[in-house]
């Protein structure tokens, strides 16, 4: 890194720190230095949000109820290195060390043995230090909203050409929220005759397999739902087109942020009301390979579409607590459904059980291949316990 900083602007009623009950959202652009549209429209978005606060009731409510982090460029060196703008390719895609940052994160499916770059490390630490719930990563070179998983194996359905996450329904909704609020993405025409994307969305793996991508890393290790937005057929268009790109994306950018209020949120506390960090909170039937845990304030956020769910809160070493919830569509109210859990017999600080960075789905694939239907039920139980640990 040439000593250039990765700048983030945080907007909200309490921009300097996390506030209990207020979800964290982020937009990141320009991780490929020669893909410039996202970088520019995020600057427009910042200006729009700041100037609309207290003037526009919707933007005011959005900023009062959400903490919004905006990183216009994740690869400033690559951007500076793009001396000759090109619609299709320039070496500025890569960082100063010639590395593609969107192939540089730990991968949940295979050992990609990437030498972690300073930009990647900075973003990984950022994800670790904030309770991000929803995110999007802005690119160029196509016109489509692409969602997790980007990589896959037989466990996630890659043999059928689609790598499905446990929250596939939510991801499809998120991608469509963007594409249908965009001026033309939903038409799915793509950038040339060979490539079409029905409704302007695609599963990442279905489009092309990618190792070490940022969106899968966010979802598996960051507990944050991220989609990748390809915003322009031309990676580095002429400056006079930028205003049109802003107009085409403005509504979609705002509507997408609102989705951070989907689903259910709450706190897990002991009998004295003290927060319990690292409690596992998941919706039944959609376990994450790296269980989603409460933050230091005992908070959890689960993005779920409207419907009936059983939420399972578990403090390691104690009995689980189950609660059935009826989730409405609350995005218009700017607050997910609230559901707290109080453990009467627990009064401990549970130690963080960090999720290993080994390819987690590789383990799952091995386990599922090893277990044949004839095997005794006890072996199945053991395998499940091993996986759940």
UniProtKB/TrEMBL annotation:
The keyword Acetylation does not apply. The keyword Glycoprotein applies. One of its GO terms (molecular function) is metallocarboxypeptidase activity. GO terms for biological process: peptide metabolic process; protein processing. Keywords: Carboxypeptidase, Glycoprotein, Hydrolase, Protease. InterPro entries: CarboxyPept-like_regulatory, CARBOXYPEPT_ZN_1, Peptidase_M14, Peptidase_M14_domain. Residues 1-260 form the Peptidase M14 domain. The active site is at residue 230. GO terms for cellular component: extracellular space. SMART domains: Zn_pept. Belongs to the peptidase M14 family. This is CBPM Carboxypeptidase. The gene is Cpm.
């Amino acid at each position: 890194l040439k000593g250039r900083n990765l700048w983030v602007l945080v907007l909200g009623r309490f921009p300097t720190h996390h506030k209990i009950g207020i979800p964290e959202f982020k937009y990141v652009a320009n991780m490929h230095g020669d893909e410039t549209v996202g970088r520019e429209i995020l600057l427009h978005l910042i200006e729009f949000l700041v100037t609309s606060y207290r003037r526009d009731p919707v933007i005011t409510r959005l900023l009062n109820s959400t903490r919004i982090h905006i990183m216009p460029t994740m690869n400033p060196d690559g951007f500076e290195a793009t001396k000759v703008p090109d619609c299709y390719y320039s070496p500025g895609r890569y960082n100063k060390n010639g590395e593609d940052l969107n192939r540089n994160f730990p991968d949940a499916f295979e050992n990609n043995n990437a030498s972690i770059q300073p930009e990647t490390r900075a973003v990984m630490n950022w994800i670790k230090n904030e309770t991000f719930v929803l995110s999007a990563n802005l690119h160029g070179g196509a016109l489509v909203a692409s969602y997790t998983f980007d990589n896959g194996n037989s466990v996630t359905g890659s043999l059928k050409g689609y790598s499905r996450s446990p929250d596939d329904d939510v991801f499809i909704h998120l991608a469509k929220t963007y594409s249908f609020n965009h001026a033309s993405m939903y038409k799915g025409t793509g950038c040339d005759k060979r490539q079409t994307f029905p409704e302007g969305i695609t599963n990442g793996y279905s489009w092309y397999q990618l190792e070490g991508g940022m969106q899968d890393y966010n979802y598996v290790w960051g507990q944050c739902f991220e989609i990748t937005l390809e915003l322009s057929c031309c990676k580095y268009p002429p400056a006079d087109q930028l205003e049109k790109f802003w107009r085409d994306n403005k509504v979609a950018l705002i509507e997408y942020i609102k989705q951070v209020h989907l689903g259910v949120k709450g706190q897990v506390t002991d009998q004295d009301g003290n927060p319990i960090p690292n409690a596992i909170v998941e919706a039944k039937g959609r376990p994450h390979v790296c269980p989603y845990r409460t933050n230091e304030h005992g908070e959890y956020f689960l993005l779920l579409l409207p419907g009936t769910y059983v939420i399972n809160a578990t403090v390691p070493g104690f009995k689980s607590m189950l609660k059935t919830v009826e989730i409405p569509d609350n995005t218009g109210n700017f607050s997910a459904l609230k559901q707290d859990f109080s453990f009467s017999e627990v009064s401990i600080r549970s130690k963080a059980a960090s999720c290993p960075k080994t390819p987690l789905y590789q383990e799952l694939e091995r386990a599922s291949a090893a277990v044949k239907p004839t095997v005794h039920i006890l072996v199945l139980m053991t395998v499940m316990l091993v996986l759940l640990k």
